[in-house]
Amino acid sequence: MMDASLPASGTRTAPAYGWRFYLVLFVAALALMAAAAILIPAPGYMDAEYYYATALQLVQGRGFSEPFVWNFLADPPAIPATSHTYWQPLATLTIAAVMGILGSGFRAAQVAGVLLAAAIPLLSARLAVILGEGRRMVVLAGILGMLPGFFAPYLVTTDTFALYAFIGGVLWWQLGVLRQHPSPGRWMLLGVLVGLGSLTRADGLLLWLPVIFVLLRSPEGKGRALAFSFAGFLALMAPWWLRNLAVGGGLVGGGATRALWLLDYDELFLYPASPLTFARWLAAGPTALFQPRLEAVWTNLQSALAVNGYVFLLPFMLAGGWVHRREQIVRSAALYAIVLFLFMSFVFPFAGSRGGFFHSTAALMPLLYALAAAGLETAGRWIAPRLGWDPGRTRALLAAIAVSLAAALSVWPLLGKAGVLGPQGSFARNQEAYRAVAELLDEDARVDTVLAVGNPPALFLATGSRTVALPHGSETTLRQVVSKYGVDWVILESDHPDGLDALYDSPSGREWLDAPLRVDDPVGRPVYLYRVLPGSGS
Asked: Minimal CA–CA distance to 195: which of 162, 247, 137, 241?
């Protein structure tokens, strides 16, 4: 699967690893990821539900369309709407490709993430080889890659985590071998990888930073290398850009560009979205602009410590990075990490602190596992003589502690999202609540019914009905959305826009709404179903 003949670019001699080593590692990782996937009963949250739902549309021959409106940034005129005007398409395409072979159920959709997640330990081990680490640390890097901590449940659902981690791992691998094996084909492959990253996440364009960093340090042929890289990138991106031009009039979806001018997270669901402009954003004043960005800095720092660094592994990752600080992949990855942190804190602070930074740092994890293994080796050599311990046993003890804690930090979130630790965190909570909603609706009429709800992709998956988001605003704003999209029912949960507090806290009929029906979500909180009275447009 990987070229075992490549020498390390570090100062130490890298041991040779044949395909059998990587095969064993892959099979072990595949078994673990498959077991983790079995624990995850449903996509779990809007991002994963979105990719699963849009993949279903592709498999069923409906193309890039959304049978729901989950935000109003691109001003969709009707339902179904054009898909992927905010999120990128590659996760949808990958899931759809697997479902086209195995079937359209969620278990089939998970296979894509399981296979990609099982490849992460191979990339981590390979990166440790490239860094010149010894056999024990190469194996440890692979083992850490099989214990993804807080990423564990997210890798095996229908989101971008496993895909982006795989693309990032291959990118660091190819950058690592570039010094010994430069070629036009490898530069083109790097451009392809940046393109794949950009089709996975909009901030995937930042993957150009490590490529250009290494390119500028290339001893010869910089212009030629750039040309080949850009050709690979353009070959992938051009079809998607042409599609965006055809459906939206720009290279980037209108939803993504308007998100630049949010003043708080809830404005992601503003209706209409036309007030989201640079002039309005600038007029908000320094406090409104800087306070959420400083809060995002703090949130993203905590994520880097707890999620990416597992708290206890972060010092070893930093130590490994310091030992290999002269390596191009370490320097270029550090550049990417710093710029990504700033981008997700200052350019997109609301998306960044609500999960965007978490998503995007997945690309760093294969390299961070290799650096953690390197740091553990360094720490063992430093600690042993100072405590009078045997160096080999010291390294083995540190490795055992690291693996044990990493395993615990992987199992804990898996059990939480599986619902073992209670329904509050379960990935099944949306589907359970919305299945109860579906049971109250006329089954024969669902296909012609439009429902307004907080999580449109999840309710679509549960009912098959067209759905639209509850807007950020008052009851008057909700009536405007109801009128535009022909909404038949309004579904109100405990997590709802602040402007609809009265409708939730004092449930009763309105001049335009019938008295509500009620079901309870898995936590016991009421969910109200308001039928829109005929002829009660705004």
From this structure: 241
| Secondary structure, 3-state, 18-85 | CHHHHHHHHHHHHHHHHHHHHHCCCCCCHHHHHHHHHHHHHHCCCCCEECEECCCCCCCCCCCEECCC
Are residues 171 and 62 part of one domain? yes
Same domain, 345 and 489: no
Domain carrying residue 526: 429-531
DSSP 468-508: EEPPBS-HHHHHHHHHHHT--EEEE-SS--GGGHHHHHS--
Q: Which amino acid is at 153?
A: P
Q: What tokens does 415 get?
A: 């059990």
Domain identity same for 413 and 524: no
Q: CA-CA distance, 78 to 68, in Å (whole number)?
A: 9
pLDDT digits (tens, 9 = 90+) for 59-91: 999 999 999 999 999 999 999 999 999 999 999
The whole-angstrom separation of Cα 392 and Cα 381 is 9
Tens of pLDDT, residue by residue over 149-175, are 999 999 999 999 999 999 999 999 999
Are 434 and 410 in a shared domain?
no
**Max Cα separation, the chain?**
84
**Which has more confidence, 10 or 101?**
101
Q: Note the pTM of the prediction, 2 decimals.
A: 0.94
Q: Are residues 115 and 138 in the same domain?
A: yes
Pair 145, 134: CB distance under 8 Å: no
Helix and strand counts by DSSP (H, E) for the chain: 23, 8
Looking at the structure of the chain, the number of domains it has is: 2
Q: What is the pLDDT of residues 13-63, one digit of tens each?
A: 444 578 889 999 999 999 999 999 999 999 999 999 999 999 999 999 999
Find, among 58, 142, 124, the residue nearest to 94 by Cα: 58
Q: Within 10 A of 502 (CB to CB), how many other CB atoms are there?
A: 12
Question: Where would I find the H helices in 76-221?
Answer: 90-102, 106-130, 135-145, 152-155, 161-177, 184-200, 208-216
